[in-house]
Fold:
Amino acid sequence: MKIFTTKKEITDYFNRKPVKVIGFVPTMGALHKGHLGLIELAKQQSTQVVCSIFVNPTQFNDPKDLEKYPRPIADDIRRLEEVNCDILFNPQVTEMYDDNEKWHFELGDLEHLLEGKFRPGHYQGVTQVVYKLFNIVKPDVAFFGQKDYQQVMVINKMIEKLNMPIKLVMCPIEREADGLAMSSRNIHLTPYDREHSLVLSRTLNWVKENFDKAKIAELQQQAAQLISAEPGVELEYFEIADGKTLHPATEASESFVALVAARVGKTRLIDNVLLN
Ligand code: AMP
Structure:
């Protein structure tokens, strides 16, 4: 695997050696099977796969979360080599940002719904870094996880609005055997938190099994109650949303997704399930 830390290195590399289909998997590292699933899918659909590892400061609205975000780069490199990733792009913050850079991308309602409401500015940081990464890597196909469903919609909107020649692929959520969605933040869960975190996937499954368009409000309310009743779990939102707009679903919606965010102990977790 080639490892590049500067924009110039990666640009020079692709200028010397044009590639038919560049597949790109942006990450913040602390790689787990969810990330590796994205790389594997990218391998199948691309000539060369670039993975980026960059803990992007502008998307963190909580400085403590940024500070304690895991950065096990040696383990990450080993994992990427095991799945035959072709290129790792692992820049420093100064390579990606000048001091006091300004950025605003008009996201409409997506900015303030769900994650946007609980993490103000988060998607501005996400679009800022992904825009930069897309310009550096120049991918033909970019792979993002359904785990961050709203993020996929945000990136899709950016690609469409800016007419970027990039195909977006959404990859399914990888879970632990007991249902917990894999996340780099799971290492912060204490054994007690870990046990109680299961209420999230359990409730999402229950909603999927019982999904009925006519009973959206009722299901949502019961799901929120189940989660709120779990010890050590503080619910931020549970929403059955329209799969296209992320507005609260109505009977007229064509696709449905249930999304949840909660604090489990000191760790904030998100998860979701497609309902049809
Ligand atoms: P992150 O490193 O958390 O920024 O995630 C990098 C990419 O991996 C994003 O597109 C995430 O949606 C995706 N991802 C994270 N966790 C999972 C998971 N459990 N299953 C599938 N994709 C995931």
In short: Strands lie at 2-4, 22-27, 48-53, 87-89, 141-145, 167-171, 233-242, 256-264, 267-274.
